[in-house]
Design a protein that fits this description.
alpha+beta, Alpha-D-Glucose-1,6-Bisphosphate, Chain A, domain 4, 40% strand, disordered N terminus, START-like_dom_sf, SRPBCC domain-containing protein
């Protein structure tokens, strides 16, 4: 699973958001930022953030189906995924913990996503939603610190690419009728 997960992260390719970049990298971590304007109401965007099954790419899940992902959008709530049973008891994974939630404005998580879970790191993923133009601008930042066996400089662009793909999925879902 670890090698498959890294390859899936490395192979991610979709339309990039309006702005995406690794904003900092050192031997102890990295930061990424992506932003996009979405032609939707901030309340709709926030509601979608709490239902990742509607916009998260299935290829970047442990179960292979983003419908198995849920977000309990309150401080202490879980961004979790159920892993269906394959002849035994079903499994589960905690991707992150909600640490800040203000409907229509901001949703922030603490967690090491994807292959970062097997590393000695902590991460903070933040979605800021602000009214802009005919909808809203969503700015997503992810700051990761700790020990990465692969090296932060090598991992940062892969993570940035995958998270940018998720933001593009959020935009597509929010702008769909």
């Amino acid at each position: 699973m670890r090698i498959f997960g890294l390859l899936a992260w490395a192979g991610a390719a979709m339309a990039a958001p309006a702005h995406a970049a690794v904003t900092g990298s050192s031997t102890v971590g990295f930061a990424t930022e992506s932003s996009v304007e979405i032609a939707a109401d901030p309340a709709r965007i926030y509601a979608l953030l709490t239902t990742p099954g509607d916009w998260w790419n299935d290829a970047h899940t442990y179960s292979g189906d983003s419908a198995n992902m849920t977000v309990d959008a309150r401080a202490g709530g879980c961004f979790c995924e159920t892993i269906p049973s394959k002849g035994g008891a079903p499994g589960s994974i905690e991707h992150a913990r909600v640490i800040y939630a203000v409907p229509g404005q901001r949703l922030r998580f603490s967690g090491a996503f994807g292959p970062l879970q097997t590393e000695g790191v902590a991460g903070t993923l933040d979605f800021a939603i602000a009214s802009a133009g005919k909808g809203a601008r969503v700015t997503m930042t992810y700051v990761v610190g700790g020990y990465l066996r692969m090296g932060a400089d090598k991992m940062a662009p892969l993570v940035d690419q995958v998270l940018g793909e998720q933001l593009a999925g959020l935009k597509k879902a929010a702008e769909s009728p």
